[in-house]
Design a protein that fits this description.
Elements: H1 3-28, H2 34-51, H3 56-75, H4 81-122, H5 134-145, H6 150-160, H7 162-165
Helix pairs in contact: 1-2, 1-6, 2-4, 3-4, 4-5, 4-6
């Protein structure tokens, strides 16, 4: 396998895992453990071929720091275990250069999702669940249950930063 093909494979794994996490969290409020594991396992290969060995320790440090801080949110029952594992795995790929901007974008997307769910919960009669898509019906159900799939915000923000991760931006 050529180096370019291997880098492409790592990029595919990144995009596929995040896309799967978004759909899984939206459908079942679960992010399977294999997703952050796959991201963590493929990162060193991608980093060695694309970013360089000297940057890996900084990426690991940011991922560990974000994981430890996220544990506070997990203990407070503000985030699920899958969310914090996914966030740490994403931070491994993003590293210190993109971390601040990513966290702001992720927070804004999460806030928009939470506000949307609160509006839908407050005005359920304004939404006709039978005339909507499967996603719209699921959003209505999540709003009724008071659940917010934060993995959607994490995954969407990470996909927005994918060009930067891959060196295209």
């Amino acid at each position: 396998m050529t180096a370019a093909a291997l880098v492409f494979l790592m990029q595919f794994v990144f995009v596929f895992c995040l896309s799967y996490a978004i759909v899984s969290d939206l459908r079942r409020l679960i992010i399977p453990n294999w997703i952050p594991i796959a991201l963590a396992v493929t990162f060193p290969v991608f980093a060695l071929m694309h970013a360089g060995v000297d940057r890996v320790p900084a990426h690991v440090a940011v991922a560990v720091l974000v994981f430890l801080i996220s544990m506070i949110f997990f203990v407070a029952d503000w985030m699920g275990g899958g969310d914090i594992k996914l966030l740490a795995a994403v931070m491994l790929w993003l590293g210190p250069g993109a971390a601040p901007e990513f966290l702001v974008v992720m927070s804004l997307l999460g806030a928009a999702l939470a506000i949307t769910l609160m509006i839908v919960r407050s005005f359920p009669s304004a939404v006709d669940p039978w005339g909507q898509t499967i996603v719209a019906r699921r959003v209505i159900e999540l709003a009724r249950l008071g659940q917010c799939p934060y993995g959607v915000a994490i995954g969407a923000a990470a996909l927005m930063f994918a060009p930067r991760v891959f060196g295209f931006a």
